Fold this protein.
Amino acid sequence: MSALAEGLTVTIVGMGITLIALLLLSYILDLFGILSKAKPKEKPEMISEIAEETNIEEEEIEDDLELIAVITAAVAASLNTTTDQLQIRSFRRIGSKGSNWSSNAKQENLQIIE
Amino acid sequence: MAFIHALLDALTGFVKSTGFIGLRSGNIIMIAVALLFLYLAIKKGYEPLLLVPISFGMLLVNLPFNGLMDKGGLLYYLYQGNKLGIFPPLVFLGVGALTDFGPLIANPRSILLGGAAQFGIFFAFLGAIVLNMIFPGLFDLKEAASIAIIGGADGPTAIFLTSQLAPHLLGPIAVVAYSYMALVPIIQPPIMRALTTKEERQIKMDQLRPVSKTEKIIFPILVTILVVLLLPSAAPLIGMLMFGNLIRECADTQNLAQTASNALMYSITIFLGMTVGATASAEAFINPQTLGILALGLVAFSVGTAAGILFGKIMCKATGGKVNPLIGSAGVSAVPMAARVAQKVGSEENPTNFLLMHAMGPNVAGVIGSAIVAGIFLTLYGG
């Protein structure tokens, strides 16, 4: 019976120490949040209408949601903000459906410029 | 005639030196177990990076007369890295270099879920004590603590604590811990569904705020100071984990982080896995204790999951429904599997619900939590 009593004590003390340590940590992390908010980095809600160059085919409608998510994330990253600050209203495909020859030539030109 | 006699002598000598003569039924069972684990690891993909070395070590040590684990044998010397508590903290170094603590920093309260899920450890600890009362002499308190830590769902922590408190149980405990970790996607979902309502599972959580590089660099330093001051015995695990994370976040130490999380970690994993498997000799494995470990390990995992979920429900109520209780189950560590399970169960109810990043917070907090619990057990029963 004494072993069980010891076990219960260890359980209560052990869980207590674990939770207190983590609670302390979480309060300190709150300070992080406050400090990062203190910086004037807040941006107003942005609504972008951005046309992105994509290679999507028209019939792949079900992939659009995923594509929008990817575009939102990319735009958010480049604007240094989060995706919930953005809303993609529309996007359309740019660029011709030209032959492989022309796209290849385009890429070669780009490489020369670089 | 003398020539034939000498030849026969040589032949009998050779036959007696082969392992076939020394094979006992225990060895044959263990070889079969090793082959089964090899099959599960290679064919079914159950934690192959660990179970392949472990089961191969198990296979080797059960082939008689090779002396690999006797003093002077190859695996005996490699095993010292486990016995002296060197390998597991080095694995933690690599884990730290792979872990992004961003989700945790962005949602500080989620760290508590990583603490709540550690209740599974203590529940299994009590379970081991109760089993010992039913079957006197089955487990002493050191063994009970080593078995209970399986509920931390953290291989290196379990191996570290067991090597310090009950090294003779290292084989069964490591094998059971890694097997259950591989089974997390099967063990957790029924418990998660049973303890939550459909509405709770559908809760969408607010997007996490972006975390700056400075915060990510300060975090490991701060955790180290705080936790190691509070619990010095957790220093090997927490210290290495946080050091690994620091070199990950500093721009100029990328080469160190690369080495720690790749070359070094995988080298250590080979040594650690093979020598842990090599402790699973027939005598160490085929006994009633292994059955107890198997049962208590499952209890620890299940109760840990349940405790995380229940604490998640409390947080859900306290925040007015902003926290999805499912992320609590990720508090048992098993990074990143448990977080993926939370994501999967959540998206079953609502395909547009993305809980993964929210679950990563409790998930990595669970690693810190189980290292703290290991430190508590070491303080109480070590030395």
About this structure: Chain A has two domains: 1-42, 43-114. The helical segments of chain A are 2-38, 64-79, 100-113. Confidence is low (pLDDT under 50) at residues 51-60 of chain A.
